[in-house]
Amino acid sequence: MNRRKLIKSLGLGIGGTIISTEALANLGEKRYGYTIPQNPLHRPMDKPITAITLGAGNRGTVYGNFAVKFPEQMKIIGVAEPIDYRNNKYAKTHDIPDANRFDTWEKVFERPKFAEAIIISTPDYMHYEPCMKALSMGYDILLEKPIAPTEKECMDILALAEKTGRIVAVCHVLRYAPYFVKMKELISQGAIGEVISVQHFEPIEHTHMAHSYVRGNWHNSKETTPIILAKSCHDLDIVKWVINKPSKRIVAMGDLKWFRRENAPEGSTERCTDGCKIERECPYSAIKEYHDRRSRTKVLDLPADESKHGEVIMERLRTTNYGRCVYRMENDQPDHYITSIMFDDNVTANFSMEAFTSYHGRRTRVMGSMGDMVGDMEELVITDFRTRESNTFIPQAEDVEGYKNSGHGGGDFLLVKDFVQAVAHQDPAILTSTINESIESHIMGFMAEESRKKGKIMPIKM
């Protein structure tokens, strides 16, 4: 019997019995690849659900691609997007008729309801109004995180969702990633005894920080959302989800230390394209990042003709924020951020978000009374204190048909698949990230930002 069949026979999938460390050791192996079985609440569908996408940027495209891969489950029949290039591309991908193409989200709701669901992937500050309007018109909603920029707006959406009985799935995609699903499963079944504390680390990676939170759409917290929500509400949520206890208090520290005008090197200029004397040496050179490496260029809306990419990239660097010096932006997002949380039953957690790393990918340590876990999203190592045996679990997201290229460890498409099922059968229990489940981690984020600014320990009240 091969390893995969053996593990399957021993019940290591979701809901399976967790066999003891001693039994695992007796198998003669210590590394186990695994997949997660299909959600047992899934049922056959008579027809695909229909959806309208508000915001055809990166995240809207990711969720829309599910419909391309699985047309028997979801069909995108409308789009609202003000940028012509993105609107045209999205409409072509999904064969959307001209009558169902809009340049603003408001125009979608000028018509009577004409789909079952709305995908909201607009900028953060544009989540609240379309979500409230969609709920009032009877749409179910797939809502990109964060829910909304303020605590009051989040609570308003929750209240209206409960009043209307509509489904609001928050895109906390890590809850659907096989790696974190397995972590939660093992913890809930006592693999390391009682959870005592958690340490969670999100290395943003230095060029990602420069791209998204210095030059990019989220560079100004007042115009969008604080970085603890814009980038790391995933992380607060996954810590809360894994611990599975109410949060009580939170304290946070951090600031913008490096990406400031006073740190601009001598010889640097307003733009990397303005004859900057240190551009070739700068780790944040826009020319090196976008033109030379062709990295993160989706935001530049490049034409289909690749022969023109170089010319278009340089034009974008001369005219958009993506070509500006990282030391001369109007950015205010902290480039390092730490927070500590007290949960019920005296469980503690520490979370650190760091910009200045050469790598990305979340790292987590969970300390329990009978063992511990150490993982980096590619593998999860569990050590039993009683036997001193260690076993490594390796998520095989690519073994889930169709999800090989799904982001966030396979979580993106697995979320949409659950959302489609929830809408088709009007059963929010199929989802693990309904707004009711996701709201607490947002409150944690708002209170963390209050703590960081005021220098106080903040209570978390639900």
Describe this structure as you would to a colleague.
By secondary structure, the protein is α/β, with parallel strands linked by helices. Among the domains are: 3-28, no CATH class; 191-259 and 331-400 and 438-459, 2-Layer Sandwich (Dihydrodipicolinate Reductase, domain 2); 261-323, no CATH class. Helix content is 33%, strand content 19%. The protein contains 15 helices and 16 strands. The chain has helices spanning 3-9, 21-26, 58-69, 84-94, 105-108, 128-136, 151-164, 178-188, 206-214, 227-230, 233-243, 286-292, 309-319, 411-425, 435-454; strands spanning 31-34, 49-54, 74-80, 101-102, 117-120, 140-143, 168-170, 195-203, 247-255, 336-343, 348-354, 363-368, 371-375, 380-384, 390-395, 458-459. The strands form two sheets. It has a ten-stranded mixed sheet with strand order 1-15-14-13-12-8-11-10-9-16. Strands 4-3-2-5-6-7 form a six-stranded parallel sheet, sandwiched between helices. Helix 3 links the parallel strand 2 (49-54) and strand 3. Helix 8 (178-188) runs parallel beside helix 11 (233-243) and helix 12 (286-292) packs antiparallel against helix 13. It starts with a helix and ends with a strand. Residues 1-28 and 398-405 have low confidence and may be disordered. It comes from Christiangramia antarctica. Residues 184-456 form the Gfo/Idh/MocA-like oxidoreductase C-terminal domain. InterPro entries: Gfo/Idh/MocA-like_OxRdtase_C (IPR004104), Gfo/Idh/MocA-like_OxRdtase_N (IPR000683), Gfo/Idh/MocA_Oxidoreductases (IPR051450), NAD(P)-bd_dom_sf (IPR036291). Pfam families: GFO_IDH_MocA, GFO_IDH_MocA_C. This is Gfo/Idh/MocA family protein.
